[in-house]
Design a protein that fits this description.
Elements lengths: L3 H34 L7 H5 L3 H11 L9 H32 L1
């Protein structure tokens, strides 16, 4: 059975992976929609977290001419889920890891 310290470290690793994937989603969204809208990607803010009808139409138009794969907000939400799962795991094991350290200490 894994120790609390191991589970806490695993949770911290999940947080890191989720954060890196979140940053990747931001870069992907920006790169994809800057190809469609030029420098004014603020118009596509809603497309960052959901695919509306306007986003879908823009996605179809850009995907035909862009080298960047069509942005999918599901990747953003998956990153958030991994990050939160890691946070909850790390926090749930924090006290147990401290107790284990005191016993070993």
């Amino acid at each position: 059975m894994p120790t609390a310290a191991t589970l806490k470290s695993f949770g911290q690793g999940l947080m890191l992976v989720g954060f890196v994937c979140f940053l990747g989603a931001v870069v992907w969204w920006h790169k994809f929609y800057s190809g469609l809208l030029g420098g004014d990607v603020k118009m596509a803010t809603e497309c960052f977290y959901q695919t509306t009808q306007d986003c879908a139409v823009g996605n179809m138009a850009v995907s035909m001419i862009s080298e960047v794969p069509t942005y999918r907000p599901e990747f953003l939400w998956a990153a958030c889920i991994v990050m939160v799962a890691g946070l909850l795991l790390a926090l749930s094991q924090h006290e147990e890891a401290k107790k284990e350290a005191e016993i070993k200490g």
